[in-house]
C-alpha cells in the first residue's frame, strides 16, 4: 500500500522506486500483486508517466487514510510502551522511616527525570501478586517474599513503644513485662503487625485517629502501643504522657524493599540497590 501511494504521488515508476529505495522491478511486482488482489487496474500509462485510473483514485483516498491510521496507531503503541517503560509504581507501608524513604526517593527521582512515578496504597495481602504481575515495581513493607522470582532486602526494623498517663492510676516500669501489660486495655494506631498475637490476654482496640487514642489515655486508663513517630505526636499534644520502649520484649517488625528479579526497568534495580546501601547501618533505628 505504501508503494502504491508513493507511485501515485510521483506519477512515475522510476522516481517512485528511487524515493522508496527499492528496485523498479520489485515496485512493479508489488503494484501488480495489489491490482490482482483488488481485481482492478490502478494505473494507466500516459507517455513516460503513469496516472491513476478512476478505480485507482478511489483506492488512493482510502489507502492514504489507512496508512495515516496505521501510523497514528503505531505512535500510540510506542507512546504507551514508553510510558510503561518509564513508569515507576511503588508501594510504601507506613513506618517511622517513611519520611527518610521518601527523601531518598526524592533525591533519586531528580537524577532520573524521565521517570513518571506513582506511589500506591495497596493491601498488604496483594503486594507479592502485584510484584509478580508487574503492576508494582518496588514495595517497601514488612514482608520478605519467599517466591523465587522476587528478591527482598532488609532496610530497618520498626520498633514499638508503650505510652500511658501515670496520673490515671497506672504505674508501669521502664521495662514492663508482657504479663504486666496483658490484661490492660490497649489502644493501637492502625498497626501493621498483629497486636492480638503479641498481647493475647489484652483487650486491643485499633484506631485510625490518634486523637481518639489520646482521649483514651488521658481519661480512661488505656495504654497505647505505637511507633516512635506516633509516640512523639502524642507527647507533643500532651507532654505528661510516659513513654517506654518495647525493645526488651522484641516487639518490632522488619521492613524490606522488594522487587521482581527480572524487572526490566534499570532504574528500579538502581533505587533498590541505593536503598540497601543507605539503610545498611540502620537495622536498629531508634535508641531506647
Structural class: alpha/beta
* Range of helix content: 40-55%
* End-to-end C-alpha gap: 76 Å
The helix tally amounts to 11
DSSP summary, beta strand count: 12
Order of helices and strands: HHHEEHEHEHEEEHEHEHEHEEH
Largest sheet: 5 strands, mixed
Question: What spatial order of strands do you see in the largest sheet?
Answer: 4-3-5-12-6
Low-pLDDT stretches are 283-288
Shape: rod-shaped
Strand percentage: 15-25%
Tell me the radius of gyration. Answer: 34 Å
Mean pLDDT over the full residue set: 87
Quick summary of this structure?
By secondary structure, this protein is of the alpha/beta class.
Kindly describe this structure:
The protein has 288 residues and is an alpha/beta fold. It contains eleven helices and twelve strands. The strands form three sheets. Strands 4-3-5-12-6 form a five-stranded mixed sheet. A five-stranded mixed sheet has the order 9-8-10-7-11, with helices on one face. The chain has a two-stranded antiparallel ribbon with strand order 1-2. A hairpin with a 2-residue loop joins strand 1 and strand 2. Helix 5 crosses helix 11.
